[in-house]
Write a structure and sequence with these properties.
Layout (H helix, E strand, L loop, with lengths): L1 H21 L4 H30 L1 H29 L1
Helix pairs in contact: 1-2, 1-3, 2-3
């Protein structure tokens, strides 16, 4: 769980800089959007893990966050690949 949190936290600066570069908003507005989405994830992440763990078991619930981290990394990789091909 700690390594997952560290990996997710390490992607925050990258995600923020990619969003600032891709949006037409000012840097303040773009970072505000990133923080709003991150706040929702901080609230819903633990609740989702608890609901899954209660229904399907603790191990399954705890695998949810690493699975989401892998999914987020894959989507970020696809985004970077599409951005590079447009240039």
């Amino acid at each position: 769980m700690t390594s997952t949190a560290g990996a997710i936290g390490a992607t925050f600066p990258l995600t923020s800089s990619l969003h600032v570069a891709a949006t037409a908003r000012t840097a303040d507005g773009a970072v505000g959007q990133v923080l709003a989405v991150a706040a929702i994830g901080q609230i819903l992440g633990p609740l989702t893990v608890a609901v899954i763990a209660q229904g399907a078991g603790r191990r399954t619930g705890l695998l949810f966050l690493p699975a989401l981290a892998v999914l987020a990394a894959a989507v970020l990789g696809l985004h970077q690949q599409n951005t590079r091909s447009r240039r």
